[in-house]
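Example protein as discussed:

>
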Amino acid sequence: MMTVEVFYQSRNGGWNSAGIVDMAEGLAFSDKNITLKLTVAADGAYELEFTSCYPTRVKLEGAIPGNNAWHLIPCCIHGDNNLPNAKPGQYPNLTHEHPEAIYSSPLWEFRADRASHPVSIAVSEHGVGAISIDPYGADGTRNGVFAELPNKFGVTLGHANLPFTFVNKFCDHDDGRSKSTSQPVAAGRVTGCFFDLPGGTRDSVRVIIDRLYRRYRECPTFKKSFAEAARAVIDAF
C-alpha cells in the first residue's frame, strides 16, 4: 500500500528523485552529485547512507492512497490540530484553510527531536503508513520529520524547519516569525523503520508508537557500585 520515494536536494533547494524504494531490494542510486544506498530488513528497519559533492539533505517521502489522510507527528501535528475549535496562531495547523495566517500551512517540517517520537504517520481509509528516523546521526546531524497534504509524510537526513522556526507560538507576524533553518550535510548514515499497515486504523498507531518507545527508551543503569554510592552519600554528609 505505502510507497516510498527517495529525493536529494539540489543546490537551488529543489528536490531530485533518486527512485522508489523496493521494500525487498532497497535502493541504490548514483549520479554526478550523489551516491546513496538504502537497505531494508524484513521487519521494515532500514539503513540509509550517502555521500554528496555538496551539502544536501536526503528525503524519504511516503505516500498512501486516499485524499483525506489524517497526519500525526507526535506532539507536533495531530491532523489540523483541532483548527475548528482553536483559532489560527495557537498551533501549527496542517491545512489549506486560512492562507493568510502564518501558522496555517499544507506542509510542516520539524527537527525530529521536537516530536515525542521521531516518526511521521498518515492514516487513510486504506490503512496506515509511517516512516521513522533516528533523531541524530553519528556525527551529530539533526534529522527531520515532515507532513504534507493530502497524503505525503516522511523524514529527512539533515533537518529543516518549514515554513519557519517556532520561537514563541503566541507572538505576532511582525516580529515573531523566525526564519526557516536547515542543516544540509555532505555525507551521512542513519537508520529508521518503515511501517506499512494496509487496513489499519488510528488504533494501529499505538503499535507504531510502542515499537518506537521500546527502541528509544533509555532505562536508568547503575554507574557506580553500591559501595561507591554509599561512600558518596557518607562523604556528602
Q: What stands out?
A: The longest strand covers residues 185-198.
